[in-house]
Amino acid sequence: MRTPLIAGNWKMNGDQDMANALCHEITVGAQTLSNVEMLLCPPFTLLLVVESAIEGSSCQLGAQDMDINGNGAFTGQISAAMLQDCGCKYVILGHSERRSIYGESDLLVAEKVKIAVANGLTAILCVGESREERESGITEQVVARQIQTVIDIVGMQSFNNLVIAYEPVWAIGTGLTATPDQAQRVHNSIRQQLASLDSSVADTCRILYGGSMKADNANELLAKPDIDGGLIGGAALKAQDFLKICQAA
Fold first, then answer.
1. What is the pLDDT of residues 8-56, one digit of tens each?
2. What is each CA distance from 13 to 104, 145, 232, in whole angstroms?
3. Of 69, 157, 158, 209, which is most buried with the most CB atoms under 10 A?
């Protein structure tokens, strides 16, 4: 069975007081939960704060991005080794905001995944289509291309140490959400793509939904057979909402 994963992406939000208070409420609530993996991904400046705040709990720590380079003259960047030094187990890569705002290509994302895997981090590979691509009926082709680029760079066996997050770009921060059936269709197409190359990897790889999952729609989305959790944005900044999603998982 695939253990559900609920990952909170705090994006560029929070300070030390907020992080400590939010983590306290989440870790207390997590004591009553089982059979779900909980992950918190704060900004770089709060990684050590959150690491300390969740110590001894069932929550894990992740980062929101990572550079492809190691230590060196790369001003403003963060390496995989630095993330590990902060206690990170996961790293989000290829988020739609990184692709659309900062111009990250499929190839660059794939190279980041390769570095993460080589350094023992579990990459959460984000894939998804824009509204124009959805309306043009090419959602599944776009997602398949993004995943295939990673397969070409890191190989299928690396997907044993990857999580995929399907995040329709048009549903992020807009209040729009793919219907459970729309989300399931894309999740299933992803799993079928993996299965065409390695059925065992397809069976074990977790695929999260990342398009505005909230407390009030989590049950329906998570009930679908190929939705193995969520990559949560705004709701991750509210402890009770985040915990309700975890309960649904």
1. 999 999 999 999 999 999 999 999 999 999 999 999 999 999 999 999 9
2. 22, 31, 13
3. 209
